[in-house]
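Many introductory courses stop at the sequence. We go one step further.
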Amino acid sequence: MDIIIKNPLVFIDLETTGIDVVNDRIVEMALLRLNPNGHQDVKVLRINPTIPIPPEATAIHGISDADVKNEPTFKEVAKSLVKLMEGCDLAGFNSNKFDFPLLAEEFLRAGVDFDFRKRKFIDVQTIFHKMEKRTLEAAYRLYCEKELEGAHSAEVDTKATYEVLKAQLDRYPDLENNINFLSEFSTHNQNVDFAGRIIYDENGIEVFNFGKHKGKSVEAVFTQEPSYYSWMMNGEFPLYTKKILTNIYVRMKQK
């Protein structure tokens, strides 16, 4: 079943130096842009992470320091990526928890503005786990009825994710072929930031989702305990979380 879209939909997969969203970096990324007319564009980039690639990461994706030493840094390609993804919704596999948060960090480190809040996000892994509870290779075998050759190559994984989503739409009649539905269905909760440190409550108010102030309004905490804002801004939280906090803090001051 083809995916019904109004805006272009970009499938993304990242290969990285590790799994720490705050400290690790992208070494390869693949983007499959699906346009409303059905035309597809694929772009694969090797990226110099500017930090060493650990052997255990190389063992997974096969990319070493030597492979990327002459490649551009993320900062050098960031503006072209924004242009490619402008006006697009985003999809991936385990992307809401990893790919999109790490990508947001890379954009912020590069000083390039990309407003993730304007996007719809579809996490194919979440749909898969809600329906079948397994991994990408198993999803590909189950839905596409063939083995995934070359897994952990960004391009292979990205194309496989696209094929799996189409097959999921064919298999499950209760999955609406609608970006808004798929985005909501593949989201576990109402995160304000990618890390889930701040979420919306039932009234659409931003509240903390961790620590001593869990469940409390961010604005209320900052009003009653102003030092908490400084503590978070100086702590080892994702840059995107800090950006959201700053937006809330500035909004408070403007009231």
